[in-house]
UniProtKB/TrEMBL annotation, chains A, C:
The keyword Cytoplasm applies. Signal peptide: none annotated. Keywords: Cell cycle, Cell division, Chromosome partition, Cytoplasm. Gene3D superfamilies: Winged helix-like DNA-binding domain superfamily/Winged helix DNA-binding domain. This is SMC-Scp complex subunit ScpB. The lineage of its organism: Bacteria, Pseudomonadati, Pseudomonadota, Alphaproteobacteria, Rhodobacterales.
UniProtKB/TrEMBL annotation, chain B:
It comes from Meridianimarinicoccus aquatilis. This is Segregation and condensation protein A. Pfam families: SMC_ScpA.
Length: 219, 265, 219
């Protein structure tokens, strides 16, 4: 929670009005998040709260207030939402939504995209050792768990795939950095794009590890 | 998945290993490609994947392919490509290195294969851990009654990327789709042809030309005749597959004729 | 709040298990009310909470806990639900955005602009094989998904259209060049699908939704 909202777009308008007290701001953030089923970004909170409010600060207070409750404040990428505490799931049989059962191929493809992103289709196939069947990518796109990322600057400029906020939300992840076992996998070199020995002459593809979780692309 | 054998008893291990091998043979369809199969086979070595014997693995795979062939199970081409590659790898690993040879050494190739297996296994494992996380709509839940209090209504039009791409795809492939959509009337479907042929074949005691089976009114217009011929031919293939008719063609492009299969009771 | 939960349906099962502590019951009621799509009655809470729980008591605690917050526990007939505090309603206004799917004419026009930008109106019409109504272009301009680009240096100097940052943002694209090409669409299985039912001649029943927002340019 580092964004300080002051510097977003308020330069023009030197605070004509006092921002509401922090306690009120906290109530407002609480109300807005409670009213929405979808995560709300800090940017949106800043736009909706009265001028001069600091939703990022209010969120810190709010998070503390809901610690250990039946409902918790969770962070999903740049956004926040209230979600029931995981240990309450046994009460929720009625609310449980049957998710479409994903094929093994789809699950593995999803995991590869999450851990190796941005990743091209050819790379997914290389890792699985088998073609990505028609419709697998389609299904993941349709579920809005993956989206198209930047094209890879290699011959053919293939499109890459990355996971979405919807993916993070579904799997209770704050960011793609929090994927289970990510650090260990990286340390073990299992996220490297190691070309097969035949391709020794080929270009090293310019993909360092830092490429995996680029986040400087909000441009 | 074959059960894990009891480590105490060699005998049990033997049996379950054999059972596993049989399961492999029967269940080729259950594998997601040759790498998946190799990973499965490597489990029988019960070692850390980093220490897996690629030579032994290559032999297991090759014997799997042989068995499948003996049982006349058709293996997809990529399984055979892998078999050829593993046979090559095996020879590289067994023979002393040829100084003339330019390519990577057998050890390099084996190490890369071991890496691929380890990476695939790691991704499997990661996928399982991912799916076991607290999931929205199963373990954690969002607000069931989102509120809309205000009276300000604004219509916002929206579309998904998939809508956009599909719209574009639809536009760019209009021509390809045309025959299906526009010219429905001149199309005889295989189902229609099959429904038509079924009662007719009872009479085909002798070799009869396929073209004589085209329905009334479909013989003249070239487009209709083409569709009717294709559909009837496909229907006849179905019937031949079901053992109802025999087909004959004396040479390439010669007329195709058919007759009722004599054993048919 | 008079029902005592014991007499509901637990005669068969003399409390083998202790009821959870009141703090836990409160968390449970909180989670159930939060996630439920409708207000929940005490009877239902009793049925859903572990044996021996006293939701009526938990509700009293919960009500107190939310007193003065941005969200309140409110009673609706026999049932209970969370509602945002009345003084927060000014924040909820933006929540009532009604989203509608773009008409087919608009989405096709948008797709052509995205894939072919900068593109003139005549070119759009050529690709679509049908006229493009002013309303369609105006709508896309108004949504700020397209804007007017440079004039084409051909006779008549027609204006061209290009997509905007807002467009990229909405579709989570980093640049319009990241849109997958036809080959990639095919590989993803998007082209092999049979044409959508709307494409089959102009059957009236095949065009439920799109019809509503038709802007008359295909008639």
């Amino acid at each position: 929670m580092s964004n300080t909202p002051q510097d977003v777009d308020n330069e023009l308008d030197p605070s004509l009005f006092e921002a509401p007290p922090m306690g009120e701001q906290e109530r407002m953030v609480e109300a807005v998040l409670f009213a929405s089923a979808e995560p709300v970004t800090i940017k949106e909170l800043t736009a909706r709260l009265p001028h001069g409010s600091e939703p990022a600060v209010a969120l810190v207070h709010l998070e503390k207030r809901y610690e250990g409750r039946g409902v918790r404040l969770t962070r999903i990428g740049d956004a926040f939402a209230f979600r029931t505490a995981p240990d309450m799931s046994f009460l929720m049989r009625r609310e449980t939504v049957e998710t479409r059962k994903l094929s093994r191929a789809a699950i593995e493809t999803l995991a590869i995209i999450a851990y190796h992103q941005p990743v091209t289709r050819a790379e997914i196939e290389e890792i699985r050792g088998v073609g990505v069947s028609r419709g697998t990518i389609d299904q993941l796109l349709e579920m809005e768990w993956i989206r198209i990322g930047r094209r890879r600057m290699t011959p053919g400029r293939p499109v890459t795939f990355v996971v979405t906020e919807g993916f993070l939300d579904h799997f209770s992840l704050e960011s793609a950095r929090d994927l289970p076992g990510l650090k260990e996998l990286r340390a073990a070199g299992l996220l490297d794009n190691r070309p097969p020995p035949e391709a020794q002459t080929a270009e090293p593809e310019g993909r360092s590890e830092g490429d995996l979780f680029e986040d400087g692309d909000e441009a | 998945m074959p059960e894990t054998p009891d480590p105490q008893s060699n005998n049990v291990e033997d049996i379950s290993a054999r059972r596993a091998a049989e399961a492999l043979i029967v269940d080729v369809d259950g594998f997601e490609g040759p790498l998946d199969l190799l990973l499965m086979l490597s489990r029988t070595q019960k070692v850390d994947l980093r220490r897996v014997s690629v030579l032994a693995l290559a032999e297991q795979y090759l014997s799997f392919v042989d068995k499948a062939k003996a049982l006349r199970i058709e293996l997809a081409a990529d399984y055979l490509v892998m078999a050829a590659w593993l046979a090559f790898l095996k020879s590289r690993l067994l023979l002393p290195p040829d100084p003339e040879d330019e390519g990577p050494s057998g050890e390099d190739l084996a190490a890369h294969l071991a890496f691929q297996l380890e990476r695939l296994e790691a991704m499997r494992d990661a996928a399982a851990r991912l799916m076991a996380r607290d999931r929205l709509g199963r373990d954690v839940f969002s607000r069931g009654q989102p509120e809309t209090v205000g009276r300000v209504r604004r219509t916002q039009f929206t579309a998904s990327l998939l809508d956009l791409m599909q719209a574009y795809a639809r536009l760019r492939t209009k021509d390809e789709f045309r025959p299906f959509v526009m010219d429905r009337k001149a199309i005889l479907t295989m189902e229609e042809a099959l429904a038509r042929m079924r009662p007719l074949i009872g009479f085909a005691g002798d070799w009869t030309d396929l073209s004589s089976y085209l329905p009334e009114g479909w013989q003249v217009d070239p487009a209709k005749r083409r569709s009717a011929t294709a559909a009837t031919f496909a229907a006849v293939l179905e019937l031949a597959k079901a053992g109802k008719v025999e087909l004959r063609q004396t040479e390439t492009f010669a007329p195709i004729s058919l007759r009722k299969r004599s054993e048919e009771r």
